[in-house]
Write a structure and sequence with these properties.
The chain contains 8 helices and 6 strands; from the N terminus they run H-H-H-H-H-H-H-E-E-E-E-E-E-H. The chain has 250 residues and is α/β, with parallel strands linked by helices. It has 2 domains: 89 residues, no CATH class; 153 residues, no CATH class. A 6-stranded mixed β-sheet has the order 1-2-3-4-5-6. A hairpin with an 8-residue loop joins strand 3 and strand 4. Helix 2 crosses helix 3. The longest helix is centred in the N-terminal third of the chain and has 22 residues.
């Protein structure tokens, strides 16, 4: 007696190759999801280090002191819950002192052709980020920066020769922040215009990052967050106390 195979006719046409192709087709969406996730991660990283970071920093000087700020300023009182907002109020910048900044000095006698172009400035910042992440120090091959201890009445030109050949700099006592000030060019091929430039390198959990400082500097390095001095008032008070309103002892 003939045995009639019970499988449906369509199953007789299947081969192992058909099965594997079907399985691969069923998982094609995984690659798309991974690609979309990668694009999203890169986008969030870029926004987080530029636009969103600037927005967060812009609210620092106006918002209520955070728990971590309270803990840093008054640790035991914070843990006991006895510290007040007034006790950890953020420093206030002195507008009169800020108006006394003279980036190019009272008299300018340098050659505009010697000014650093925007392209070279961007390359300098990128190279210094690499150097800071590698060794924790600025790369000396670009010239040793000229130390500056106070910003009041001080030129941002090289104090030794009055030229815009190296930036003036100051490193925070804890080593986590490096301030840079100079006079650079706007890149005009016919007649470069001098512009004050202020920036700061700061060591974060993700490594060293550069921030443009608006308000006292007009030249900006694209691709990096822009902050104001009042966004980092505590750091300013630590490194440039002459720019802040003296707070009365409590």
């Amino acid at each position: 007696m003939d045995v009639i195979e019970s499988r449906p006719d369509w199953r007789k046409l299947l081969t192992p190759g058909h099965v594997w192709v079907a399985r691969l087709n069923a998982t094609r969406w995984v690659g798309g999801v991974l690609l979309a996730g990668l694009v999203g991660a890169v986008t969030l990283d870029v926004l987080g280090n530029t636009v969103w970071l600037s927005s967060r920093l812009a609210a620092v000087s106006t918002g209520e002191p955070t728990f971590w700020e309270r803990l840093r300023v008054a640790p035991w009182q914070t843990l006991r819950g006895t510290v007040s907002s007034a006790a950890v109020a953020r420093p206030t910048l002195d507008p009169v002192k800020l108006a006394q900044l003279t980036p190019a000095g009272r008299e300018t006698s340098f050659d505009p052709a010697a000014l650093t172009t925007p392209t070279d400035l961007a390359g300098y910042v990128a190279a210094q980020i690499v150097a800071l992440n590698a060794s924790g120090t600025l790369d000396p091959k670009y010239g040793t920066c000229d130390p500056i201890e106070s910003l009041i009445g001080q030129t941002w030109l090289n104090s030794k020769n009055g030229q815009p050949d190296v930036p003036r700099c100051k490193r925070a006592r804890d080593g986590s922040t490096v301030w840079l000030f100079s006079v650079v060019g706007d890149g005009d091929a016919v007649a470069q215009r001098a512009m004050p430039w202020a920036g700061v390198f700061h060591k974060t959990a993700d490594g060293w990052k550069f921030f443009n400082i608006a308000g006292i500097g007009s030249a900006m390095v694209p691709g990096h967050a822009v902050i104001r001095l009042d966004n980092v008032a505590r750091q300013v008070e630590a490194d440039w106390p002459e720019l802040t309103v003296k707070r009365s002892a409590r």
